[in-house]
Amino acid sequence: MNRTVLITGASSGIGQACAWVLAKEGYRLALCARRTERLEALKQAILTDLPETEILTFTLDVRDANAVQQATDTLPADWQNIDVLINNAGLSQGLDPIQQGKLSDWDTMIDTNIKGLLYVSRAVIPLMKNSTNAHIINIGSIAGKEVYPNGNVYCATKHAVDALNKAMRIDLLEKGIRVSAIHPGMVETEFSEVRFHGDTDRAKAVYQGVEALSGQDIAEVIAFVLSRRAHININDLLIMPTAQATGTIVNRNK
Ligand code: NDP
Ligand code: 8X3
């Protein structure tokens, strides 16, 4: 049977691109996010192009520990073996100095990027027990490798993902589950629109004059990482646009 991948945050950006790229490689797709209608539209679009693809969609807010457990406990019988988990759901909220940060923004980032990733991993890892080729991909960020002005809490959550990636690698070693972190720099998705609470002009300015990465660029690297022979684990990759040297040093001369 083809490998089954569960992708969190598949309704947009990197997660959506992973769904497309892995569908083309013959994976069975279990796709979740909060925006169900987006998942349904994605499913239909993939089925139009690639009618053989097996796709399961379900609504999930990764911040809700009970909902995460319930969703994985009630997966249809033929979806209870998961080979690949892509912990992609995540977001940034605000870009404020720490003394002015909004508590609700902090809670949302911590609950989604750290606690959500933990809840999903804890619920899905038992579903990998029959897989002969199990692999977890954790989506970190350049923000998990360095900090930048006003990035404070978002950077802290992605540093936590970096730490959890290393910790999972140790704890899951005996189970033979591969664990890899993908740390992108600037990727043009809905990320900045979400960070700036729907301010599209401010979001557009982030990508002005620079060729950012696309979700597809990241998804293709993930497909490569997943396709290595079983004795190879790519622990950690930092992937930047050519025009971006650090979180904040960007050549905008495009
Ligand atoms: P998008 O905003 O385009 O996509 C984010 C996805 O996460 C959406 O599908 C969204 O779905 C989902 N999501 C957010 N909150 C929740 C939640 N509580 N429960 C379930 N799903 C949720 O951004 P990206 O594709 O860019 O972001 C994907 C990942 O990549 C994130 O972890 C982000 O931190 C990381 N990243 C992004 C970079 C960038 O520059 N864009 C760079 C480095 C890392 P929905 O709203 O439907 O629930
Ligand atoms: C998203 C990229 O540079 O805004 O993780 O932190 S950045």
UniProtKB/TrEMBL annotation:
Highest taxon in the source lineage: Bacteria
SUPFAM superfamilies tied to this protein: NAD(P)-binding Rossmann-fold domains
Keywords: Oxidoreductase
Pfam family, one: adh_short
Protein's UniProt keywords contain Oxidoreductase: yes
Keyword Oxidoreductase annotated: yes
Recorded family membership: Belongs to the short-chain dehydrogenases/reductases (SDR) family.
Protein name: SDR family NAD(P)-dependent oxidoreductase
